[in-house]
Design a protein that fits this description.
By secondary structure, this protein is an alpha+beta fold. The protein contains one helix and three strands, in the order E-E-E-H. The radius of gyration is 17 Å and the shape is elongated.
Length: 65
């Protein structure tokens, strides 16, 4: 894992088509702005975990809703 220190409005470039900009830093929260092509999925960890838990629950019920 690469760990970088950035200030507000500084950018990180990944390959030729992904740009991450630090938007705001306020009260222990950081706003991260991500620019990338639409075909690249972006997800928050908590959403992925919730989706995974729901899939496991559905599988345990035999795929029924």
């Amino acid at each position: 894992m690469l760990s970088l220190t950035r200030r507000t409005h500084q950018r990180i470039f990944i390959a030729d088509n992904i740009v991450i900009t630090i938007g705001e830093i306020e009260r222990g929260q950081v706003r991260v702005c991500i620019e990338c092509p639409r075909h690249i999925p972006i997800a928050r960890e908590e959403q992925l975990l919730a989706d995974e838990a729901q899939e496991i629950e559905e599988a345990a019920r035999g795929g029924r809703s």
